[in-house]
Amino acid sequence: MTHDHALTEAAGPLVWPVGFRAHTGHGGLREHGDDISVVVSDRPATSAAMFTQSLFAGPAVVLSRRHAEGRNLRAVTTLAQNANVATGRRGEENAAEVVRRVAGIAGIPADQVLIGSTGVIGRPLPMSTILAHFDETAGRGDAAFGAGPLDVARAMMTTDTRPKTAVRTVGQARIVGIAKGVGMLEPNMATMLAYVFTDAEVPAGELDGALRGAVNRTFNCLSVDTDTSTSDTVSVIANGAAGPVDPAAFAEALADLCLDLTTQLAGDGEGATKLLRVTVGGAGDPGQAKRIAKSVVNSPLVKTAVHGADPNWGRVLMAIGKNTDETGIEPGKVTVAFGDIEVYPEEPEADTLDRLTALMRRSEVDIVITLGLGEAEATVYGCDLSAGYVRVNADYTT
Predict the structure, then answer these.
(1) Residues 169-182, mean pLDDT to the nearest whole number
(2) Do 51 and 233 form a contact (C-beta atoms < 8 A)?
(3) Rounded-to-integer distance, Cα 60 and Cα 39, Å
(4) CATH code of the domain covering residue 375
(5) Which residues are catalytic?
(6) Same domain for 139 and 238?
(7) Same structural domain for residues 81 and 53?
(8) Which domain holds residue 338?
(9) What is the spatial distance between Cα 348 and Cα 356, in angstroms, rounded to a whole number?
(10) How far apart are CA 3 and CA 208, in angstroms?
């Protein structure tokens, strides 16, 4: 499955909003290619951020949480291929030193820098090569900051097969988003690493509300393998260079951009060959709709059926039925469809099965469920489960 990163004409070209610049380079975290990135606003900004709820949150998350409290972040730096998690006091000191170096290069206070680290857990950062890179970067001055959004998205990748970017406009302002993450991915706060930059002028409180609303509808509706990372981070920085915008229009544009990134992440899940969307309607409340939808999208049996283009609706019923705490659900009220073809409660005719199989062979598969309990609805995003997922993760650290 492919995604068009050239973006629509309405969204505009993939360049930074006014007042942002970026650097990428090789710091020895991986054998070849850029693995360090920095994006910085040249002017003061407002910000909002959300982080993993994992009990083993890494030093980058712990430090960034403190910095995010000021709601005035101006820079984001990311280290790829090494999560710097479960590395003790040494890991904390290394994260702080990276932030200090980035702040010095960017010419801003250290507490206005957010740091993300992603990759293998339990290995110390190779600080000698990282610091050598920052020394060289500082010596280049402004010339070091010529990277574009696509360069940063590529530098953040670990097991991703392609970079994830998105652009939206609102009024005279632009919103640019970049993300990475294809495994250890069921967010419970935000998701993987996702950074949004805009030249819109948005008060910090409004920005925080817009981000939380967008995350709830998008990143928190994403699951590749049910595992929540120790390093998940999402942030938005708004520097106001383009002036104020309509708050409702901005919130909707931000949510639309996050949904774009969400579907890109789901479609690039480790070993994935198909994007899987599960929509549950007729629920008693939005929470119930999301719980049931995630139960289906996370089911290994459903995911393997999707991979094999097998319209096995019995597995969908199983995934709904195992939610034994949902005592209000009655089988007689439930309907299940693959795309626009209903498969339960009435079994499809024999001549419909060929059409079902053809539908299941598509690169995007939709499962639609109604519970018959109310008006609430939720859509969640995931992918199929293939032998490729096992290969990627069995060999990950080697």
Answers:
(1) 94
(2) yes
(3) 16
(4) 3.10.20.340
(5) 191
(6) yes
(7) yes
(8) 275-394
(9) 9
(10) 29
